[in-house]
Amino acid sequence: MIKAVMMINTQGKPRLSKFYDFMTVEKQQELIRGVFSELCSRPENVSNFLEIDSLFGPDSRLVYKHYATLYFVLVFDASENELAMLDLIQVLVETLDKCFSNVCELDIVFNYSKMHTVLDEIVFGGQVLETNSTEVMKAVEEISKLEAASNAISLVPKSVSGWRGR
Amino acid sequence: MTGMRGLSVFISDIRNCQNKEAERLRVDKELGNIRTCFKNEKVLTPYKKKKYVWKMLYIHMLGYDVDFGHMEAVSLISAPKYPEKQVGYIVTSCLLNENHDFLKLAINTVRNDIIGRNETFQCLALTLVGNIGGRDFAESLAPDVQKLLISSSCRPLVRKKAALCLLRLFRKNPDAINVDGWADRMTQLLDERDLGVLTSSTSLLVALVSNNHEAYSSCLPKCVKILERLARNQDVPQEYTYYGIPSPWLQVKAMRALQYFPTIEDPSTRKSLFEVLQRILMGTDVVKNVNKNNASHAVLFEALSLVIHLDAEKEMMSQCVALLGKFISVREPNIRYLGLENMTRMLMVTDVQDVIKKHQSQIITSLKDPDISIRRRALDLLYGMCDVSNAKDIVEELLQYLSTAEFSMREELSLKAAILAEKFAPDLSWYVDVILQLIDKAGDFVSDDIWFRVVQFVTNNEDLQPYAASKAREYLDKIAIHETMVKVSAYILGEYGHLLARQPGCSASELFSILHEKLPTVSTPTIPILLSTYAKLLMHAQPRDPELEKKVWAVFKKYESCIDVEIQQRAVEYFELSKKGAAFMDVLAEMPKFPERQSSLIKKAEIVEDTADQSAIKLRAQQQPSNALVVANPQPVSGAPPPLKIPSQEPQSVARSISQPNGTSSNLDPQAPSPDLLSDLLGPLAIEAAPGAVSTDQHGPSGTGGHADEVDGSAIVPVGEQTNNVEVIGNIAERFHALCLKDSGVLYEDPYIQIGIKAEWRGHHGRLVLFLGNKSTSPLTSVQALILPPAHLKLELSPVPDTIPPRAQVQSPLEVMNIRPSRDVAVLDFSYKLGTIVVGAKLRIPAVINKFLQPLQLTTEEFFPQWRALSGPPLKLQEVVRGVRPLALPEMANLFNSFRVTICPGLDPNPNNLVASTTFYSDTTGAMLCLARIETDPADRTQLRMTVGSGDPTLTFELKEFIKEQLIVMPMGSRALVPAAAAPAPAAVAQPPSPAALADDPGAMLAGLL
């Protein structure tokens, strides 16, 4: 199970964080800080794995990827495959890339709500939901359309049963 | 998301803040603003609400507590319009936890959205439940979510979410899914064409089979089918091909699920699977594209795990090792990392260690890798693969690495080096060298137990003593040495310095001066050791050295009034003793040998260890006879238990046995002091305590008389096959069972005699005293007591006098030693004559298996690695027990604790489960950790699943049966005749006292159970 998803910039500012086990704000911050201090001391061209037992308890693993000014971090337990998790980060980034065409940190900062939507279509309750970025994009676009539509017409909730015949 | 200008402005404001203080001010202002707006509900449009709630979530991420507005967030869930509803769902799932009261209020709305026909609403609701749904949700929503998952009219988008949502509900409450009904559905779900739904369903399957693989055995061939489909790239849409690999995630999940099935019996399924695995193993190459590499190796490493799990043919195994050997030398660091990790896992498999050893130099190179993650893996692997043949090389590498390693690794490193040196030392002088080097290079990271251990070895091996002394002397020449080095060299030179007397610079007075130079630099705990050393040096100075005497006495005088009582006492006593001539020599004679101890270091490391390599070590430890150094005194001495498992405790007891003043004659007794007596050895009086002495109670079982009186005199229970002419008072079986749980009480009583018992248990030894009290006014004659011992106990009963005078009591000690685990019971065949009446009874002796348990409470970190290390039968046995006497969980916990199997509360995430631990002692097994897990079914308290594990198959079985006996229902309400066990009776039978007594007295409850 995935325990947390984090995006932290190279200054240590969290840009997006989601914990799949409930934690208090203080604990979340402590973990983000702890993860960051480990990450920023790592040289380039080393593995993407980090021992993290001291922060998340025994048997937890961490993979990360460093893109430009951002660290993408996944923390998970022994039931997940490390490299598959690394691939999932890649899926997330590729999806964001499609979303914002060449995603950069600012996109992530100012589209805070959309980031949550995208993430929720990829990771669900700590499990991998979808790994196909095309499929993720479809879902995200549907949601965007719905938001736009109901901003315009404010009547009865739109029925979507028509979609079924796709 | 569109048109939320307010949020963007706020984020931008925060970004413009120059420092944390400014940010805080801006956040406070915003929170104040939001608070005011929320108070004024009327002007709060849904749009504004949505905007504010997003801001709250953003502020929450920044690390500020947002302790209001939760109600508003939750209320948005019931908003009719999509955008508000969406925000409500997202924010609620980030801000609240599953136990929040507001969440309970929302259950109905959430349910309506799930059963409603709006698919977007369904998705939102499922996401919330999947992220934070708790037990309440599991109970009310599971059927609806199941319907969505199997519905053919739902879109894949909804169904895949339903699958993961169901997984969450199952985790929260396993009863949410009815195994019987669901197994077939689950099997059908695996036929799914849509790979998104299939991936989620496979995740669900993994959770289900990890809990109960038997019920889902029909899913096994389906998983193999999925793998075949992906391996052959049949019916895999382009979008699900990730860098040319057909959905690596699904492949990984399917292989993960297969690892929960113990074996694959069906030959054709097995054959198909091995074909797929073979294809994966052979067909994966390291390529340039990093992402493709990662994906293909994700699949490959999972395949390796599966191959290891399935214990494939030797050929395939060596193929795996060859692959791993390749991986640990590639450039790509991730592959190298995983190569090392999986090689460590591979150590568990027999027959491959020699192949792995071929890669030793490459692994040692990884110890110098720039990546600490890789260095750690290399350390684990080196540790796991070390044996007698390569110990020297590996340990020396570790020592070398110690000087450059980062601080965070040094402690682990030095511990591992110490353990390996101890376990695999080719000769003892090498071992001493290693430990002294270790102390020299990394003194701060060398825990006390490491130097205690070296002292034990030196003390017990005479050949080693001159060598150790000269080594210790060498280190003292260094300008700055670590305090631990001062301790160990002071100790060794005090004991064995005189062996060097002929060497230059090693006379008693020279040793004294060089040691005394260090005294100003050391802390209080080291001073007593130095004082003892001075006294010993003084004693060894032959002929008397008045010069040295003067100096040493001056030191003693100086510390005579030291505030530290230990130092003061030693100074005073040594001063006085040193004036006593011959007596002084006697008192300060060489320390006796230590009893053989199991290394506390090794225990400690096992707890610190990671799962994989630890189990590897364990497994190998069982496979090969231990090469660990053998302490010269092989006979465990009675009274001294093997070291306890708890790391903190063992070093302590060693510490005490070393740091106690060497001055009293009691220490010449070769018996090792027992921990109980040692507990206050540092206190001034305890020095007089004779070690190993077990005080015998002189007062008889007076405290138990009341208990006997309470027993209903009419409850007459004939004793088995015995034909007695007397009425037995009380119920023999009940008395026996009570004594199984406590250590003193009445074993048997009739109008003429009362037999009391008092027991002390220490490790695998026990000392019972039988108190035979003649109640009558005439003597009891022809008294005979004979022990019929079961094979696993060694029992020695001191002779019982032939006659017991009127109104007198005699005592008869009974020594017990537990040789191996067994539930058989010893029987006391007892008879006497009173005038013409002959009375005889066969009584079970309460020297039962739980007496050789020592309560032990483990923490999560300690428990789980051990638990996982016990891989399965015969070390870990599982059984579903039916017909259990229904007990509430706290009652069950009490029951376990009462027979010294300690419940570790909170370890198991599922509140319906109990996990427990204990240490078992016997001569053959030594001290052995036993773990147990009880999974109860809240719906049916009469059945439970029990898993028991230990390092010894017999112990596991016996303990499991023992616990089962304790849990099984006994016929209620029958005050029927209870046969006392003439032969050892495994199943204990007794009557419960009244229900009222059961309720509040765990002891009574227990007696009832037994």
TrEMBL record, chain A:
Keywords, alphabetical: Cytoplasmic vesicle, Golgi apparatus, Membrane, Protein transport, Transport
Xref: CDD domains: AP3_sigma (cd14834)
Cellular compartments annotated: Cytoplasmic vesicle membrane; Golgi apparatus
UniProt protein name: AP complex subunit sigma
Gene of this entry: LOC108809073
GO cellular component terms, semicolon-separated: AP-3 adaptor complex; cytoplasmic vesicle membrane; Golgi apparatus
Segments forming domain AP complex mu/sigma subunit: 1-146
Keyword Transport in annotation: yes
Membrane topology: Peripheral membrane protein
Entry-linked InterPro entries: AP_complex_ssu, AP_mu_sigma_su, APS3, Clathrin_sm-chain_CS, Longin-like_dom_sf
Keyword Transport: yes
Family: Belongs to the adaptor complexes small subunit family.
Gene3D superfamilies associated with the record: 3.30.450.60
Organism the protein comes from: Raphanus sativus (Radish)
PANTHER family xrefs: ADAPTOR COMPLEXES SMALL SUBUNIT FAMILY
GO biological process: Golgi to vacuole transport; intracellular protein transport
Domain of life: Eukaryota
UniProtKB/TrEMBL annotation, chain B:
Keywords: Coated pit, Endocytosis, Membrane, Protein transport, Transport
Functional description taken from the UniProt entry: Subunit of the adaptor protein complex 2 (AP-2). Adaptor protein complexes function in protein transport via transport vesicles in different membrane traffic pathways. Adaptor protein complexes are vesicle coat components and appear to be involved in cargo selection and vesicle formation. AP-2 is involved in clathrin-dependent endocytosis in which cargo proteins are incorporated into vesicles surrounded by clathrin (clathrin-coated vesicles, CCVs) which are destined for fusion with the early endosome. The complex binds polyphosphoinositides.
Subunit structure comment from the entry: Adaptor protein complex 2 (AP-2) is a heterotetramer composed of two large adaptins (alpha-type and beta-type subunits), a medium adaptin (mu-type subunit) and a small adaptin (sigma-type subunit).
This protein's GO CC annotations: AP-2 adaptor complex
Membrane topology: Peripheral membrane protein
Superkingdom to which the source organism belongs: Eukaryota
Lineage: Eukaryota, Viridiplantae, Streptophyta, Embryophyta, Tracheophyta
Organism: Raphanus sativus
Gene Ontology biological process terms, A to Z: clathrin-dependent endocytosis; intracellular protein transport
Protein name as annotated: AP-2 complex subunit alpha
Sequence segments annotated as region (Disordered): 623-679, 693-712
UniProt: a 1,2-diacyl-sn-glycero-3-phospho-(1D-myo-inositol-3,4,5-trisphosphate) binding residues: R5, G6, Y47, K51, Y52, V53, W54, K55
Pfam families linked: Adaptin_N, Alpha_adaptin_C, Alpha_adaptinC2
Clathrin adaptor alpha/beta/gamma-adaptin appendage Ig-like subdomain domain boundaries: 737-846
Compartments (UniProt record): Membrane, Coated pit
An MF annotation (GO) of this entry: clathrin adaptor activity
